Amino acid sequence: MKKNYKKEKGTIIYYTAAIMAIILAMVLGLSAILVSQISMVRDMGQSVIAFHGANSGIERTLYEVRKEERGAGSFSGELDSNISYEVDVEVENYEPNPDFNLYKVISKGAVSYSAFEGGSDIARRAIRVQFVGR
Predict the structure, then answer these.
(1) Tell me: the pLDDT tens digits for 10-54?
(2) Would you list the domain boundaries of the chain?
(3) Which of 30, 85, 97, 127 is most buried, taking the most CB atoms under 10 A from its CB?
């Protein structure tokens, strides 16, 4: 029983090319996933910084209300050259006790950062709080 290998000559090249194409497709797919995940993690870090910027606006509002220097209105501030916040304050009479006010505060934090070579992006986060004060 002698097998005729003449018909099967060169088939190993086709199998090798098919396997290499499959491996290349898997590597390219994994690379695309990794690049998007790295970008998302970087953006998440900037989002946390923007949240802390918004929190600073809330803290400043609380401080000024306790010092009785803050009423309704808007103000803004910077924590760093690329971190800022904007605060909007609404004041209403507090129904259960007319000696107190209900403060509705919205603070928006923003951080600008370099997203890629030569470009920039801005991460924004907002916090809304209500509290009772004099």
Answers:
(1) 778 888 999 999 999 999 999 999 988 887 887 788 889 999 999
(2) 6-133
(3) 85
Are the C-beta atoms of residues 71 and 88 closer than 8 Å to each other?
A: no
Spatial contact of 109 and 55, defined as CB atoms under 8 Å apart = yes
Read off the pLDDT of each residue in 51-79 and give the average, rounded to a whole number.
Answer: 87
* pTM over cut 0.90: no
Token pair 């099967």 in the structure block, residue: 8
Instruction: Name the residue with tokens 């600073």.
Output: 56
Question: Residue 9: phi, psi to the nearest 5?
Answer: -65, 135
pLDDT of residue 104: 92
Does residue 102 contact residue 124 with C-beta atoms inside 8 Å?
no
Q: Quick check: helix, strand or coil at residue 50?
A: helix
